[in-house]
C-alpha cells in the first residue's frame, strides 16, 4: 500500500454529503438530526437554496433583527435555527458548508467555540489564501475587512457542528429585509450591509475550485467518504428539534410589537 | 516578589472564602459544591439542589448572550441536556448533573445572561430541582477532583 493511503487509513472517517438547492429548512433539520442522532463525522455541502430565506440564531427576535413589514408583504420565510449566532438572508447565491464532528475527531482541539472557530479559520485559510487577503475576523471569514462567510455553532455533550453560509453571490436588494444588528463585530465599524460584505465570486475562480479545495483541506484531517442523500434513510426525516419556521401569526405579532416600540 | 505576595494573599483569601483557585487556568472552584465532567456544578440542600455552570465553563464559552431555561415542572435527568447557553456564535448544551423536577429557574438570566460569566456560582445559577435520587450526587466530583480534572483537560490541548 502506498504511504499516503496508509496515512489516510489512520484518520477518522468523514461522510461527505453534497446537495444542490435543498431548502435551508430541510438542511437545518437534517443537520440537527445528524448532530444529535449520528455518531459519525459529516461534511454537508449545499449549493444555494430555492427561496430567499431569513435565518436567525437560536435567540433571534424578529422584531429586533428583521424589517417585518416588507418581509410580511413579500412573504419571505423566517427561520430560527438551532445554533447560535446572527441573522442572514440566504438565496440561490449562497453556498453552505457544515462540519459535524465528534469531540475527539481532531487531536488537540478543545470542543469550545473559540478553538473550533480558529481551527476552521485555518482550514479555509489553506483554501482561500491564494485568492485574496483571507482573515478570520472575530467570528467571520473575510477578505481584507469584507465579510463573505458567516458562522454558527452548536456544541453538545460529545459532538459539535460548525456551519457556514458563504456569500458566493448575493442580491443586494435582499439585504433591505434585515435591520442593522445591535450586536455586531467591532471590525464592522457601523458599515451598511453592502459596505460590509463582499462576494466570493469576485475573488475565487469558481465554486468548484473552492469546494474541491475545501474537501482537499479536510482530507488532511479525515478520510473522506462520499455519501448519498438516499443512504440517509430515517436520518433525513424531520424531528422535533429546535429549528423552527416562524408562522405568519408570529411575524405579525412581532411586527405589532415593532410598531409599538417605534411609537 | 510583588507577584508572590499577591499570590500568597489570594491564597489566604481564597482559603477563608472556601474558594480554591487553579493558578494555571485561573478558574475558580467552590469547595462545598459537587461537579460533573461536563462542567456543571450542583449545590445540594437536603432534597433540593441548585445547578449552574462552572467558572471553567463560562471562561471557555465566552460572553453569554442568552440562556435557554427549562420549564418549571419539567423533569431533568442526570447526564441529559436540559437547556442551552448561547455565547456569541455558539449554543452549548447544559447537561444536568442530577435527576429531578425543576422547581425554579433563574429568570434574571433572561434580561442579564452575563450573570453566568460574572457570577457563575451565585447570581448566575440556572435552575433549582427537587432531587429524585440523592444517591446520584455520589457519582459527581468534589472540588479537588474537579480542579484536577480541569487541569488535565486543559493540558491535553
From TrEMBL, chain A:
Entries under Gene3D superfamilies matching the protein: Bira Bifunctional Protein, Domain 2
Location of the BPL/LPL catalytic domain: 38-226
One Pfam family it belongs to: LplA-B_cat
Protein name, UniProt field: BPL/LPL catalytic domain-containing protein
Amino acid at each position: 500500500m502506498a504511504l499516503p493511503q496508509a496515512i489516510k487509513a489512520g484518520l477518522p472517517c468523514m461522510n461527505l454529503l453534497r446537495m444542490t438547492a435543498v431548502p435551508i429548512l430541510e438542511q437545518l433539520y437534517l443537520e440537527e438530526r445528524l448532530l444529535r442522532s449520528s455518531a459519525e463525522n459529516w461534511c454537508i455541502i449545499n449549493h444555494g437554496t430555492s427561496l430567499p430565506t431569513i435565518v436567525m440564531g437560536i435567540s433571534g427576535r424578529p422584531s429586533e433583527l428583521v424589517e417585518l413589514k416588507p418581509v410580511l408583504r413579500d412573504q419571505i420565510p423566517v427561520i430560527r435555527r438551532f445554533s447560535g449566532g446572527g441573522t442572514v438572508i440566504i438565496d440561490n447565491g449562497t453556498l453552505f458548508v457544515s462540519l459535524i464532528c465528534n469531540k475527539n475527531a481532531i487531536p488537540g482541539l478543545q470542543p469550545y467555540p473559540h478553538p473550533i472557530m480558529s481551527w476552521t479559520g485555518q482550514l479555509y485559510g489553506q483554501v482561500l489564501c491564494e485568492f485574496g487577503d483571507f482573515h478570520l475576523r472575530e467570528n467571520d471569514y473575510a477578505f481584507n475587512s469584507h465579510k463573505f462567510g458567516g458562522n454558527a455553532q452548536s456544541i453538545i455533550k460529545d459532538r459539535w457542528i460548525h456551519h457556514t453560509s458563504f456569500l458566493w453571490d448575493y442580491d443586494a436588494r435582499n439585504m433591505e429585509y434585515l435591520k442593522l444588528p445591535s450586536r455586531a463585530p467591532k471590525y464592522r465599524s457601523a458599515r451598511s450591509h453592502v459596505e460590509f460584505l463582499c462576494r466570493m465570486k469576485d475573488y475565487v475562480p469558481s465554486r468548484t475550485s473552492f469546494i474541491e479545495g475545501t474537501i482537499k483541506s479536510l482530507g488532511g484531517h479525515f478520510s473522506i467518504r462520499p455519501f448519498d442523500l438516499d443512504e440517509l434513510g430515517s436520518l433525513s426525516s424531520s424531528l422535533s428539534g429546535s429549528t423552527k419556521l416562524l408562522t405568519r401569526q408570529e411575524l405579525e405579532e412581532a411586527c405589532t410589537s415593532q410598531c409599538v416600540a417605534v411609537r | 516578589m510583588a507577584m508572590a505576595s499577591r499570590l500568597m494573599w489570594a491564597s489566604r483569601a481564597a482559603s477563608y472564602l472556601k474558594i480554591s483557585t487553579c493558578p494555571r487556568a485561573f478558574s475558580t472552584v467552590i469547595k462545598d459544591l459537587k461537579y460533573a465532567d461536563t462542567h456543571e456544578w450542583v449545590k445540594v440542600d437536603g432534597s433540593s439542589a441548585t445547578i449552574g455552570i462552572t467558572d471553567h465553563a463560562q471562561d471557555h464559552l465566552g460572553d453569554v448572550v442568552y440562556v435557554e431555561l427549562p420549564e418549571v415542572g419539567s423533569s431533568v435527568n442526570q447526564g441529559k441536556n436540559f437547556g442551552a447557553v448561547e455565547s456569541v456564535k455558539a449554543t452549548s448544551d447544559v447537561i444536568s448533573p442530577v435527576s429531578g423536577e425543576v422547581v425554579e429557574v433563574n429568570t434574571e438570566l433572561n434580561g442579564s445572561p452575563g450573570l453566568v460569566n460574572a457570577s457563575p456560582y451565585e447570581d448566575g445559577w440556572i435552575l433549582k430541582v427537587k432531587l429524585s435520587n440523592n444517591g446520584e450526587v455520589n457519582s459527581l466530583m468534589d472540588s479537588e477532583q474537579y480542579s484536577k480534572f480541569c487541569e488535565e483537560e486543559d493540558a491535553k490541548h
